[in-house]
Specification:
Blueprint: E1 8-11, H1 17-29, E2 32-37, H2 40-52, E3 58-61, H3 67-81, E4 86-89, H4 104-132, E5 135-140, H5 143-147, H6 153-173, E6 178-185, H7 191-194, H8 198-206, H9 216-227, E7 238-241
Parallel strand pairs: 1-2, 1-4, 2-3, 4-5, 5-6, 6-7
Helix pairs in contact: 1-9, 3-4, 4-6
This protein binds acetoacetyl-coenzyme A.
Acetoacetyl-coenzyme A binds next to helix 5, helix 7 and helix 8.
């Protein structure tokens, strides 16, 4: 794809497996790509490796679970890159465990990082998108927000909440040329998924008709599709990408 008028994309949680693949794909598409990071050591290593591989992508520090920190980060990005046209809310964590064992801090950490972050980021970019009459907001949810998952009351609640947010905001901003969509990946070969106990993961993969984990490049391709100008009539949608694990 050739992005005629260069648009700027912000990918949150850029240094993770999915975030990295999205940054590469969007850079290859011709966008100006910036990322967000939370841990400094990881960020410096990531930027060096990406640059050496032909992806000079700048990362900005911000805690997307915190409204003020997110605002500072967005202002810093806008000061350097003028504006953010496309926001990919990708940052996310897990704190798995049955409710009976779940500590309040595990609940709050997941809700703040996976769901409140969506409000924090969108809130800071939406006025600029309205003013320019163009925007793309892509929320990375999960199959486990669609169907639930044993041991993930916090994560499933946050991921399901993301799509509720998507549907409502899509209605509010459609008239300004802004689309808001959700992507719900299944089990993708990232560090997050590989941290699931091997026995449990084997059982999960056995339920996937494709018989394998998804690739990060497969999710990145869908992000690229929804970021494009040509998808201007798609809004409020939830795209499943799960190898057939959950069909409805
Ligand atoms: N269904 C029914 N029973 C289950 C079960 C399941 N899926 N999984 C575990 N159990 C049972 C066990 O057999 C055990 O039962 P017994 O006590 O009778 O032996 C009990 O539940 C587990 O006890 P634990 O003390 O181990 O439970 P826990 O509170 O520590 O939770 C767990 C264990 C963390 C949930 C662990 O099973 C696990 O990690 N499961 C995987 C969760 C998962 O899929 N996470 C996805 C992470 S990746 C991601 O989220 C990305 C994405 O978007 C897809």
């Amino acid at each position: 794809m050739n992005v005629s008028k260069k648009k700027t994309v912000l990918v949150t949680g850029a240094t993770g497996g999915l975030g990295t693949a999205m940054c590469k794909k969007l850079f290859d598409d011709g966008y100006t790509v910036v990322g967000n990071y939370h841990t400094k050591e990881k960020a410096e290593k990531w930027m060096t490796e990406m640059k050496n591989n032909g992806y000079p992508i700048e990362l900005f520090h911000g805690d997307v679970s915190d409204f003020e920190s997110t605002g500072k980060m967005i202002h810093a990005i806008e000061a350097k890159y003028n504006h953010i046209d496309i926001l990919v809310n990708n940052a996310g964590i897990t704190r798995d465990g049955r409710l009976i064992n779940m500590k309040p801090e595990d609940w709050h950490a997941v809700i703040n990082t996976n769901l409140n972050s969506v409000f924090n980021c969108a809130k800071h970019v939406i006025q600029g998108m309205i003013d320019r009459n163009f925007g793309r907001i892509i929320n990375i949810s999960s199959v486990n927000g669609q169907r639930g998952q044993f041991g993930q009351t916090n994560y499933s609640a946050a991921k399901a909440g993301m799509h509720g947010f998507t549907k409502s905001l899509a209605m509010e901003v459609a008239k300004y040329g802004i689309t808001v969509n959700t992507i719900s990946p299944g089990y993708i070969g990232t560090d997050m998924v590989m941290a699931v106990p091997e026995k449990v993961l084997t059982q999960i993969v056995a339920q996937v008709p494709m018989g394998r984990l998804g690739g990060t490049h497969e999710v990145a391709h869908l992000v690229s599709f929804l970021a494009s100008e040509e998808t201007s009539f798609i809004t409020g949608a939830n795209y499943s990408i799960n190898g057939g694990q959950h069909v409805y």
